[in-house]
From TrEMBL:
Pfam family, one: ADH_N
Species lineage: Bacteria, Pseudomonadati, Pseudomonadota, Betaproteobacteria, Rhodocyclales
Molecular function per GO: mRNA 3'-UTR AU-rich region binding; NADPH binding; quinone reductase (NADPH) activity; zinc ion binding
Protein name (database record): Quinone oxidoreductase
Signal peptide: none
Length: 325
């Protein structure tokens, strides 16, 4: 019998249930998968809590790795037995097996293991579009990364350093500062102990940075604007502390003709050709060891509720995977 995590109402981690499910055969444009590892991401808590509304009852999870077990009509870029991974598609990655659209799936190279793939697809593809598309990081840039010791943060720090940037990162503890510095972060700011905007201005000689990458949201948004140089870009790509409240656009003019964007992976990776290009670049930097994926927590898939508790309490660092037995 196949099992999966489902929830019938929104709320805290306690709403997650481990239940038996049926896996239907694939229809046109679909495949069936046997999962080997599932990624844990902050967006999962948004779906569970209702911050991002979903139709209930619902599955959960947007990222996993596994093996193709069956193909539906019209699927020509995959074969039964292929190792694959994905980030996107309908919710439901928290499952031992599933049937889903083939469009988000990419083949895994031999150099990338299943757990690494499950841990990095959403975060790694996010890092790719943030650094290589939303704002193209160049040698000599100084950038600010919030939550630098988190899953996306560690990838951003390593990749940006490889691209020739100086990386400033905010973290919540001395231990996380050490972790971030070990992964390419040049300057760490303990945001609980000092105002990060003042420290960023100090580190940049008063000029500010051209871009801020912010997955924290409400608690850091306004001070992040104060870190930007004129015509700088505020990239708000997450809401770990809550949704950013409405902003007076006149403030952006007053602070130096600033730009603000709220990007999503699902927009950047909507086209097959671009998804393949993004995945190829990600697999290349991971396969060559330029970007190392730190899997610092593993939970059994059935223990997803505890994984959510630890993630929301900021007891995790790096990436987390839910292991399928």
């Amino acid at each position: 019998m196949t099992h999966a995590i489902r929830f019938e109402q929104t709320g805290g981690p306690e709403v997650l249930q481990w239940v038996a499910v049926d896996v239907p055969p694939p229809g046109p444009g679909e495949v069936s998968l046997r999962h080997t590892a599932v990624g844990l991401n902050y967006i999962d808590t948004y779906h569970r809590s209702g911050l991002y509304p979903v139709e209930l009852p619902s599955g959960l999870g947007v990222e996993a790795a596994g093996v193709v077990t069956a193909l539906g009509p019209g699927v020509d870029h995959l074969a039964v037995g292929d190792r694959v991974a994905y980030a996107g598609g309908p919710l439901g990655a928290y499952a031992e097996a599933r049937t889903m659209p083939a469009a988000p799936l990419v083949k895994l190279p031999d150099a990338v293991g299943d757990e690494v793939a499950a841990a990095m697809m959403l975060q790694g593809l996010t890092a790719q579009y943030l650094l290589r598309q939303t704002y193209v990081v160049k040698p000599g840039d100084t950038i600010l990364v919030h939550a630098a010791a988190g899953g996306v943060g560690l990838l951003l720090c390593q990749w940006a350093k490889h691209l020739g940037a100086t990386v400033i990162g905010t973290v919540g503890s001395a231990e996380k500062a050490t972790l971030a510095r070990a992964h390419g972060c040049d300057h760490t700011i303990l945001y609980r102990e000092e105002p990060f905007a003042e420290r960023v201005r100090e580190l940049t000689g008063g000029q500010g940075v051209p871009v801020v990458y912010d997955a924290v949201g409400k608690d850091t948004f306004m001070d992040s604007l104060a870190c930007l140089r004129p015509m700088g870009l505020m990239v708000s790509f997450g809401n770990a502390s809550g949704a950013v409240p409405p902003v007076d656009l006149g403030l952006l003019a007053k602070m130096g003709s600033l730009f603000v964007t709220r990007p999503t992976l699902f927009t950047y990776a909507a086209e097959r050709e671009r998804l393949d290009q993004m995945a190829a670049e990600l697999f290349d930097v991971v396969g060559r060891g330029i970007v190392k994926v730190e899997i610092n927590q593993r939970y059994a898939l059935a223990e997803a509720a505890q994984a959510h508790r630890d993630l929301e309490a900021r007891r995790t660092t790096g990436s987390t995977v839910l292991v399928v037995a």
